[in-house]
Write a structure and sequence with these properties.
Layout: H1 3-16, H2 28-35, H3 41-49, H4 52-59, H5 64-76, H6 83-108
Helix pairs in contact: 1-3, 2-3, 5-6
């Protein structure tokens, strides 16, 4: 095993723990950038932590508090020092998610034409009607 292969394997173990990843779940682009010298070890770890695989395995399958705890364990090698530290990172996670949602929504709309960038999606569901119980 070469030093490069050992570093890549260690980076995966640090970021993903003992999770077994299939070949298609690995980040071939990050590995290639590291092998070519375009990424440092820290850059490789960051790229793995920002991958869709990491998001799917840890963010989408856990609540925000558990995700932050796992994030500390995987990226810093330690548990959070206090509940305040966890709360701060959960707040950052929520703010980042809101920012990403608000920037992703317009680009995901299927609109075209000269006014497309000024259009907003219209509500397709009928408004709710209040029905008084008798």
């Amino acid at each position: 095993m070469t030093d490069t292969t050992a570093v890549i394997r260690a980076a995966y173990r640090q970021v993903f723990g003992n999770a077994h990843l299939m070949d298609e779940e690995r980040s071939a682009s990050a590995e290639s950038l590291y092998v070519n010298g375009d990424l440092t070890v820290q850059g490789l770890v960051t790229a793995l932590a920002q991958s869709d695989t990491y998001r799917r395995l840890f963010l989408e399958k856990n609540g925000p508090y558990r995700f932050v705890e796992l994030n500390f364990k995987h990226l810093l090698g330690r548990a959070p020092h206090s509940q305040a530290e966890v709360s701060e990172h959960v707040q950052r996670l929520a703010n980042e998610a809101m920012r990403l949602r608000s920037t992703a929504t317009p680009s995901a709309m299927n609109t075209s034409g000269p006014l497309a960038s000024n259009m907003s999606p219209r509500c397709v569901e009928p408004p709710l009607r209040l029905v008084r119980a008798t």
